[in-house]
Amino acid sequence: MFKSIWRGIKRIWRPFIVVVVTVVVIGVIYMTQVKRDAQIKGFLAGFANQKQTVSTVTAGTDEWQPTMNAVGTFRAVNGAELALESAGVVESINFKSGDDVEAGAMLLHLRADDDEAHLHSLEAVSELAQVTYDRDERQLKAQAISQATLDIDAANLKNDKAQVAQQKALIDKKTLRAPFAGHLGIRSIDLGQYLAAGTTVVTLQALDPIFLDFYLPQQALDEIKVGQKVAVKVDTYADKSFTGEISAISPKVDAASRNVQVRATLRNPDHLLLPGMYASIDINTGAPQHYVTLPSTAIAFNPYGSTVFLVDDQGKDDKGQPKLVARQSFVTTGPARGDQISVLKGVNEGETVVTAGQNKLHNGSGLVINNSVQPTAEANPNPKDQ
Predict the structure, then answer these.
(1) Is residue 2 in a domain?
(2) What are the φ/ψ torsions at residue 27 (nearest 5 degrees)?
(3) How many whole angstroms separate alpha carbon 48 and alpha carbon 362?
(4) For the purposes of burial, counting CB atoms within 10 Å of the CB of 140, is it exposed (0-12), middle (13-18) or buried (19 or more)?
(5) Which domain CATH number covers 243?
(6) What distance in Å separates the CA atoms of residue 246 and residue 41, rounded to the nearest whole number?
(7) 311 is a domain residue
(8) Rounded CA gap, 46 and 29, in Å?
(9) Which of 205, 203, 208 lies closest to 182 in space, CA to CA?
């Protein structure tokens, strides 16, 4: 009987015990989670209140000259790969590689013995035709011959003189002369070599002055004109700057790129600039402008807008230390120049702007300023290979 009663009691209390145990376990887990959340919140609060070390700069104004930039290629005022129209064997070479020559200077002569002998034969025939014509002209005055005979003599004389001139022209094609004054390149032929017609002998380039061809977008047509000054830099001479002026503007805009070709002319007395070299061109346009300028590292460019962090001085904290706080500000940027960028709106002259370390900031972050290392802010940066 007692066993039956005990079994009944167990059947009644077993669910109750399970419920109690479950509630106790859930309570323990809940208290543990609450304690952990409190610890995390405390840690985050401490981190949020922790001062962040940043570098800063005071925003100042600078005078900027609006410029247009382009990349161009140098071209000789006159340049040619010299060759002969006739074939033959090289008899004489009258230049050295790298010489400066005047217009008309003889550079090379091909063997022309056969052609010269044929010329002498034609000259003899022409002289005979001249004698015949002179004699028949006297005889016509004495009415010893007809006018028709004299006309035939005149035609023969003209034909013989034309053949002489033709042969002289053929012989002249055996001689290579400089078509203009300039600087010779490296010769590519040798004495005694047989040259086919059209074989390049040497390049000749007129180097002073020299052209610089480049392209600008069609929007620039309103800001450039013939005679306008240009500044030119070549990486071959990193410390040198060359000046020239616009000498021609193409009257046609390329339909594919919507760019217009522009040509500048530069003096090149030392022959430092060579055809085929590329150069960067700066063209000053308009009056100088005053902009608030910052290092480009100070600007955070985001899809929703560009921002900077300003430093607000809120006096002293409880420990008597300067209380500096970050404040985010949206900005409107303008033209860039090297490592510098202009700010049209959002930053005033004299305000302190964070230049490094802003990725760990938010509005109200405490700040510690350390300007021992500053980002570069050069108008014309010139990085060096190391």
Answers:
(1) no
(2) -65, -45
(3) 9
(4) middle
(5) 2.40.30.170
(6) 68
(7) yes
(8) 26
(9) 205
Residue 40 tokens read as 């995390």
Tell me which amino acid residue 279 is.
Answer: A
350 and 301 in a common domain = yes
For residue 184, give its domain range. 82-195
Q: Which residues contact 113 (CB under 8 A, 6 or more apart)?
A: none
- Cis amide leading into 295 (omega within 30): no
What would the pLDDT profile of 106-149 be if each residue is shown by its tens digit?
Answer: 998 888 878 778 878 888 888 888 888 888 778 878 777 788 88
Residues 267 and 297 reside in one and the same domain:
no
Report how far residue 281's alpha carbon sits from residue 248's, in angstroms, rounded to the nearest whole number: 15
DSSP-based helix, strand, coil % in the chain, nearest 5: 30, 40, 30
Q: Which long-range contacts (CB under 8 A, 24 or more apart) does 118-124 make?
A: 118/167, 119/164, 119/167, 119/168, 119/171, 122/160, 122/163, 122/164, 122/167, 123/164
Tens-place pLDDT, residues 145-169: 788 887 887 888 888 889 888 888 8
b (16+ CB within 10 A) / e for 76-99: bbebbebebebebebeebebeeeb
Total domain count for the chain? 3
